[in-house]
Amino acid sequence: MTSRNRYFLIGALLVLVAGLGVGVVAYYTGALPGSPAARLNGPAELRYVPADASLVAYADVRGVMQSRFRQQMLKVEPDEQGRRQFEAKTGIDVQRDIDHVVACVTPGTGADRADRSSGLVLASGRFDQAKIAALLQEKGAQKESYGGVDLFTQEASGHMAGLEGGPHWGLAFLAPGTVAIGSLRLVKSAIDLRNGRGANVTSNAELMKLIRANDQGTTWAVGRFDQLREQARIPDQVASRIPPITWFSVAGHVDDGISGTLRAETRDDQAAENLRQVVQGFVALARMQAGSQPDLASVLQSVQLSGTGREVSLSFAVPARVLERIPGADHRRDGDQHPRP
Fold first, then answer.
1. pLDDT band for position 292 (50/70/90)?
2. Which end of the chain is more exposed for a tag (fewer CB within 10 A), N or C?
């Protein structure tokens, strides 16, 4: 592995741990923090998230996309294919239109839960509804009315099938500046919640406790690890080696550099102690191997493991000076003559 690729891989992994890699959500969307009083119970879009969500995530993509960290990463590995695919499918230009996003995953309702889990993205920003509607219908989406809202549906395929995790996806404008995109089942559920039918995630006390604890981050994700593991269809030989984690949370702050904290709650104290020992071993090994690379060593030295009882916590920080030394960050790819947003 080249030095350039190694640095990019490390950066990508840190982004993932910080919560920036929550699927497409972290790359495609973002939010401007509200006032402290307005955020006591999390983002306003939680009103559209069902109570049985196993994962809830948030990303301040406006902040992320304007950050020095993202500019440095784009210089190393510029790639707009995913963004362009998303815009072609939905008519939404993420960098221009999106302010913030909330996303969720819910368990399935059928016998085969792994095949029936669903995802939903709730984006807030500025949208040309007429233009988007015309583009969706041009691309083959069907328009129908549901709960007093125009609902656009289409059978998922290719990139969107992987995003939605279901046979059909939907898009609906729940309010001016708020669009729901995801599995058809969850888009309809969001419309129902908009109309006062059903319980939203704010009634889930355990999940809301985690959301409130992490809501100050640029990005965050919280959820039931045991439910997500069940939905992931992990092979038995691999699943048997995963510690018995129940709840987890990741929160990241992105500005000149990037910092983050990952917390996990295990089934019992012994499981937490075993997990701490495993993580400590990996961190120690990584520090030994990074001895000849000062920048990488400084990042690994920032990794701190803590936690008592059933909780395990891992934090890290990558300063801006490390980003500036990423190979290739001082120039763009050959032939790229135009600055990227």
1. confident
2. N
